[in-house]
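Project outcomes to date are best conveyed with an example. Our students and postdoctoral researchers have been running inverse folding experiments weekly, and each run begins with a structure described purely in tokens. The record below, which covers 129 residues, was selected by the lab manager from last quarter's runs and is presented without edits.
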């Protein structure tokens, strides 16, 4: 069974009882998660220097966990999408127009993966010749 450790305020690996408990069984893999929440930072009036410290500490946390073979997933929480089901989050263009308007969400995918893929392939061909 995979053990999940959710890092929130305590980003230490030394003396972290939750991390110690998650690693108690060497046969069970461990997955670490940290959720970025810029809206919460604004709500709580975090200074830019505090946000910078968190982001720099996440790099150290990631390196420390990687040395223990524990991946750190860093995801961004978007409160406007919290009430949507998984399909709507991953395919927002399938939502009714009124729902999209209320979300202030674009009516097309943000990243044009097909165009990006074509550009990468063309670039690769250009340097391979």
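After processing, the design step wrote out the following sequence:
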């Amino acid at each position: 069974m995979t053990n999940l450790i959710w890092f929130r305020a305590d980003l230490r690996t030394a003396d972290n009882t939750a991390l110690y408990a998650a690693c108690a069984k060497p046969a069970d893999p461990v997955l670490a998660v940290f959720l970025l929440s810029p809206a919460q930072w604004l709500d709580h009036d975090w200074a830019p220097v505090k946000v910078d410290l968190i982001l720099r500490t996440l790099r150290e946390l990631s390196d420390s966990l990687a040395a223990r073979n524990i991946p750190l997933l860093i995801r961004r929480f978007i409160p406007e999408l919290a009430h949507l089901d998984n399909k709507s989050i991953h395919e927002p263009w399938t939502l009714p127009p009124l729902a999209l308007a209320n979300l202030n969400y674009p009516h097309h995918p943000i990243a044009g993966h097909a165009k990006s893929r074509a550009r990468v392939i063309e670039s690769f061909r250009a340097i391979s010749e």
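The longest helix spans residues 48-67. The beta strands are 3-7, 30-36, 72-76. The training component of this project remains on track.
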